[in-house]
Prior knowledge:
Helix content: 10-25%
Strand order of the largest sheet: 1-2-3-4
Number of strands: 4
Radius of gyration: 15 Å
CATH topology of the domain at 21-90 and 100-104: Cytidine Deaminase, domain 2
CATH class of the domain at 21-90 and 100-104: Alpha Beta
Strand content: 15-25%
Shape: globular
CATH superfamily of the domain at 21-90 and 100-104: Cytidine Deaminase, domain 2
Largest sheet: 4 strands, mixed
Distance between the termini: 18 Å
Structural class: alpha+beta
Number of helices: 3
Amino acid sequence: xxxxxxxxxxxxxxxxxxxxxxxxxxxxxxxxxxxxxxxxxxxxxxxxxxxxxxxxxxxxxxxxxxxxxxxxxxxxxxxxxxxxxxxxxxxxxxxxxxxxxxxxxxxxxxxxxxxxxxxxxx
Length: 122
């Protein structure tokens, strides 16, 4: 488990560089590439503010899928998580509309030629 510390530093950098968060990235160092219940609840807060928000999962030991770019299914997964009051790791029922809780993002594509800067706040 990990927890973000000094979050105000992140917001200061975003504000200074006129950046807008489009999602978040995290690792499953010894697990497969999936969205846990904690991940689903974390991503919900991003996706309700920005419907196209993404959650990137890096799973280096998952040989079949070392990374994934996901979002909550809408309206199914969004509705399930919105109505869930549980905390920590816990199971969720599948949405009543027959979809999964989350899905791979079809609106994202990879561009290896894109330039970017990394700001390391450690």
